[in-house]
Amino acid sequence: MIILGIETSCDDTAAAVLCDGSELVSNVVSSQHNIHSQYGGIIPEVAARQHFKAINSVLKKAVEPLENKFRDVDAIAVTNGPGLAGSLLVGVNVAKGLALSIGVPVIGVNHLEGHVYSTWIEHNEIDKNPGFPLLCLIASGAHTDLVLMKDFGSFSLIGRTRDDASGEAFDKGARMLGLGFPGGPEIQKAAINGDAKKRKFTKSKMPGTFDFSFSGIKSALRREIEIESSKGKISSQKISDFAAGYQEGIVDSLVSKTVEAVKEHYANGIIIGGGVASNQLLREEIADKSPVPVFIPRPNLCTDNGAMIAMTGWIKFKEKPSPQWDLDVIPGMKIG
User: Fold this and answer.
1) Residue 303 · residue 68 · CB < 8 Å
2) Residues 47 and 142 grouped into a single domain
C-alpha cells in the first residue's frame, strides 16, 4: 500500500511517499525560510503564493522513485488543518484534483496528529511496547499541547499554552537578540557558547494545571536586553548567555510539565513532536528526567514534512474511510 502525503499548513511545501507504513520511499521539503527570514516571521499571503509555485515540482520529485510515478499511489493524505488558510487551500485543492485524476481516495489529516504519528515511522511498535496510554508533547511555532493518547485516533487534550507557543517564544526571543529566523535553531546555536547560570529566567509554573505560559519569560528577556543596552552595545558573549538562559527556561517548562503529566496519568511512554522537538537540550533533558521511555523522531521528521502526513494517512486508510471529496480546510482544527 503506497500513500502520498502532502503538507502545506504553514511555510514548508512538503510531500512524501510511504510504503506499507514502514518504508519511507521519499520525503521532499521545499523551505521558504530564506524568503520569510527577511521579515523576521511568516507572511501568510507570501507563504500561500510560494506553495502554489513549488507544489508541482515537490510532488514530481516525491514520486520519482516509483516505477509508474503517480499511478502507483493507492491514496493521497493531505493536511487540512490547523494552519494558515491560504496555505492549506493549496495543498487540499491539489490533493483532491490529483486524487480524482488518478482514481484514488483523498484523506484529510490533522496536522497535530501528524506530529504524533511521525514517531511511528521509526518506532512502529510503540503501540505494543510500551503500549498505550502515551503522553504526547506537541511543541512547534504555533502549538504547545500536552495530549494523552489512549489509542489510535483517541486523543485527550490535558494541557496547552495560554499565550505564546514555545516555538513562537523562540522566534521572538531570537528577534530580540538580533539572531536569525527561525529562532529555535538560532538560539540553540548561540547558546552553545553561553552560560545559562549567568542569565537565569524563571519559568511560569501555572500551578494546578498542565498548561504552559511563555509570555513571562519573553518579557523578562526583553527587560534584561533593555537594561544591558542602556549600558552600551551588548557583547556577543552576553548574547550567548541570554540565549542559553532563555533556552534553558523554555526547555525546563516543557520537561517539568510533561514529566508531571506522565506521573499523574500513568502514561507508559512519552512522544514529542513538532519543530521544537529538534532542540538538542530538550531531547537530552526529557531523556534524563523521564520515568518512562521517550520517543522523538529524528530532527527532519520533527519539523513539518510530508512523511508524517503519509503515516497518518496510512493509519486512517487501514480503517477503510470513505473518499473525502467534500474535504475542506479547517485553520483552527484542534486535537482531543
Assistant:
1) no
2) no
Question: Is the backbone of residue 283 left (phi > 0), alpha (psi -120 to 50) or beta?
Answer: alpha
Q: Which residues of the chain are under the pLDDT cut of 70? A: 321
Quick check: is 327 in a domain?
no
Locate 316 and state its grid cell: 486512517
The boundaries of the domain holding residue 136 are 130-296
133 Cβ neighbours under 8 A, 6+ residues apart: 148, 149, 150, 265, 266, 267, 268
Amino acid 16: pLDDT: 98
Q: Are strands 23-31 and 12-19 parallel, antiparallel or unpaired?
A: antiparallel
Give the integer Cα–Cα distance in Å for 201 and 224.
10
Q: Give the count of domains, the chain.
A: 2
Q: What share of the chain is helix, strand, coil (3-state, %, to 5)?
A: 50, 20, 35
| Sign of the dihedral defined by the CA atoms of residues 198, 272, 308, 83, in that order | negative
Contact 262, 292 (CB under 8 A): yes
Question: Hey, what's the cell of 64?
Answer: 520519482
82 and 10 co-located in one domain: yes
Q: pLDDT value at position 321?
A: 67
CA-nearest of 21, 2, 11, 148 to 79 is 11
Q: Which three cell numbers stand for residue 234?
A: 551588548
| Integer Rg of the chain from CA | 20
Sequence-ordered alpha helix ranges (H) in the chain: 33-36, 44-63, 85-102, 111-117, 166-176, 183-191, 215-229, 236-265, 280-289, 299-302, 306-317
CATH number of residue 192's parent domain: 3.30.420.40
Distance CA 216, CA 204 (A): 7
Q: What is the pTM of this model?
A: 0.95
- Cell 510503540: give the residue: 126
